## 1
Amino acid sequence: MENKNGLNDNNTFAEVLYIKMVSINPGLADLELYEFQYLLKNITPELGWENLKIIPMKDLEKLSQDENTFLGIQLNPVKREKIILDEKILCLDQILMFGLVKEEYPIEWVNDHFYFDIRSFCFFFRTKYFSPETLKHFGNQPLFAFDQKQIQFDHVQEIGYKEFKNANQEIDQALIKILNQVLTVKGSPLLITLAGPTGSGKTEITERIHNYFAMNNQRLTTIEMDNFYKDREFRDGKPYGPHVIHYDLFIKAMQDILAGKSIDIPSYDFYQALSSHDLDGNLRDGKTSIHIEPADIIFLEGNFPFYLPDFDKLIGLRIVYLTDDPIRLKRKWRRDIDYRKKYDPVGFVNRFFRTQFLRAKEIYVPLMKVSDLVVDTTAAKLWLTPELANEIHISEKVAR
Amino acid sequence: MDSMMRSNLTNEEKLIVQDSELFAQVLFGKMKQITPAIQNMELFEFKYALENLVPKSGWETINLEDPEIIEKRVNDDAFYFSILLKPVRNGKKVLDDQVLNLSQQILLGLALNVYSTEWVLEHFYFDIRGFYFLHKTRYFDQEIINWLGGKPFVAYEQKQKEFQKLFDVGYKIFKEANRSVDEFLIRLMNEIIKQHSKPLLIALAGQTAAGKTEIVSRLTNVFKEQGLSVTSLEIDHFLTDREERELKGIDSLGKEAFHFDLFIRALEALRKGKVTKIPEYDFIEAVSSHTTDGKLKPGKIMLTVFPADVIFIEGNFPFLYSEVAKIIDIKIMYLTDDAIRLKRKWKRDVDYRKKYELTYFMNRYFREQFLMAEKAYIPQMKKCDILVDTTEAKVWIAPPFQKKFNLSENKHS
């Protein structure tokens, strides 16, 4: 059967692009060319590739640092009753692919500034989590570095818990040893804040730590920071800070549990986007609080900035648990799309593209500059401030 | 309705039904026996996935029917015709109630030991990515086995077994797993083509995602290397507008879903070595270039098909109807198990083509696999010359065809 004209050009384009793309994402080598063509078809410009205009590399780099690029991303734009890729994301994809085929963009440059996710079939800006300031804060070198086991994920499109946990075995064990040391030096109860982007592995590491201390008959409790949220309707549009949470209840709860008392905290219902407590901090009729027993180690976990007035001095250890964006994305494909079926897959891509940058800028990058410890699971590196390393008398030898 | 959900549940059963944590734990253990892919999951991943199937008012509200009643229902086409493709609840597209209820019953029945894992495995398969149960379609019956000579012509190692642990299946690994049967078929066709006059019309029937396009493209290359001209006619191009088919409830079944007269006309022209024009189906918009009564729509054009030495006719039921079957020289059935095809479609139609909304895709597959097997594939199996079963890694050849081309097992295996 003869097809309409133009297809031949598209075929050549696909072939040239495919070779380029394999060197950007080696996982694409597992695809047949025509699988790649199916994917490419979804984002092929209606007027053909040749009508695209190359954007200078400098301008794209500028866009990657501009908050407005991300604020402008629509989460669920609809066309013909279907959620579609945001126009800006689509445009970026098309231009990068066209630029690669035309050899306007060197592969190294693309790799430096973007990563490509196969299941999204989309380029994402690489977020830089480590600033020069942060590196300096951690004495310019990690306390130690292990084999980067997550490299094995290059050839999978989604990642389940088991293989992720196995890949992080060494670095997680090292973190546990450090925690043990901190506990010895600082004594209990110890309040630890654990922040990390969604999908970075906070739940798994908490579980590991929990198992370890339970074996040593030490009590550990985890408090989800999210439970202190006020109703979403009230929070909408406001930045993170004391006013979006039940701040007085929060401070009181932290003080009490550190004094060895049991506490009752609000609970936040994500489905209804409502707190168990009203805006004045009173328990609503028919709602219940969460009861928490005293513990030796208290983990405060969340995607929260955690630098709140009066609170900072209560924290015994500030941890940021990081996993690279492409890996988190593959974890979320499995967890949030395949298992939870939480979002429309295309809407999910828009959301991840938008929030990875905004969250990093708002929460993680600033938080890293004031944290005591950063675990980077993808680089398999653990960073400690020289002050903390000194205080707990730890060196690379002890950690191993 | 007969209920096996006795009001006098044992205390242990009550505990399981009422304690969601315990329920998940017990079920997790059972489901590992049903689907090897679940062995790779952590309990809390299992719970995430299970969440979507938990009945709103608790597991105790699910009525467990007698296994015989369930068996009867899932073997009755009325059940499948009643599956809604796009039901909406609270403004969201959802899984059809009956599809959901079947999975809920099986899960609860497994957790409470009311249904044995053997019974479940005999009648159902579990798709890990959709996280739901589907009926296991039986394609082979005694009549088909007799027609195909009582035993397969050749049988190889079942490489597709390695897909049990996967969520989805891409082309490369599928092709690799089918290497033995595919290469056998290529050798066989090479033999036959030498003995046959031209043009040769080869019809290849197979379910959606069975692997038709791949094998046709491999055979095409082989024939072209021998200097033969080859063309292919995709029956799907003769489909009428999808919206209209869905309204009428005829989907992709039956002559009325197609521009059948135009199809016969095209075949006859190619048979005589003439150029022919056929309708074009737009797979993205799901509309035909022709109106349902066979007229070219304004602004649309027809596809041109040139005559060739070898003409492939590819589709879901190229030789179901005797009008077509009698024009065809070689009738091949290319079969892949429902569970594997679904994994292929997750990758191809959902991840790659982004063709379907999720619950629509799941409802539709649940519905179509049975109806299409009954209306299209099983009847064609009863008249095919060659049957390739990729999942079982077997090739069957009907004895009359073996005789006609003087085929013997020793020569080909």
Note: Chain A touches chain B at residues 1-3, 30-32, 34-35, 38-39, 41-42, 82, 119, 121, 157-158, 160-162, 165, 203, 334-335, 338-341, 344-346 (CB under 8 Å).
## 2
Amino acid sequence: MARSIVPIRTGEDVVRVRQEVRRFAVEAGLGLVDQTKIVTAASELARNTLDYGKGGEASMDIVQNGARRGVRIVFEDHGPGIADIELALKDGYTSGRGMGLGLGGARRLCNEFTIASTPGKGTTVTIARWK
Amino acid sequence: MDRIPILKLGEALLVTIQVDMHDRLAMALEEDLTARIVDHSAKGVLIDISALEIVDSFIGRTLANIAMIAKVLDADTVVVGMRPAVAITLVELGLSLPGVRTALNAERGMAMIKSRIDDAAMIATDEDEGGP
């Protein structure tokens, strides 16, 4: 399945990201619970991209590691960046209108989670869930 | 903008969320429900989420807000029909839905609301009669 790139500019785009990630998760052969986890994580991160990153994009791929298949999603924005990533990952930390579960919660729902951020340049979050 | 329909059923309000909600739609539901609880002096709100494939932190917060607002307005909220995969994911996400009562299906949820309405009616009758 070819890579899919979904721009994130509005709240409707967050829904589009959820639907597209679902399609990839099904294609990768993930079970229903794993599908739900990766779609939920993607929803949190897409919202972060929109609210804190001032918009950006999500690109997703089916990935293969030996016999294992999975889905990997990269969220990229060129917003203000995150000065203290450890703090941002803590439950209960929020600088906006959420519950402060976005980043930490998303990390718990994935098998892989990496975040890179440069203040003033933007943030990239990569997640993956394996079958 | 789309709105999620709210049905009136006696002294209860019934909401069936059948679309993948974006955040503004969830916020609109919160506002609409608040207005309708007051308009109809509703005693209960039943929210059916059986069609929802995910509940993320925003939707979860909206459900918790609705329950809190309804409580302040003297109405009970029961969320019904959560899918098992959604429940597992919610717990892992760290969302506990404070103050939100849940039931497995609409029938049980309605029974919870009805018993609350009946209790309230009984207390009102006792007061009218000046007690025993």
Note: The mean pLDDT of chain B is 92.
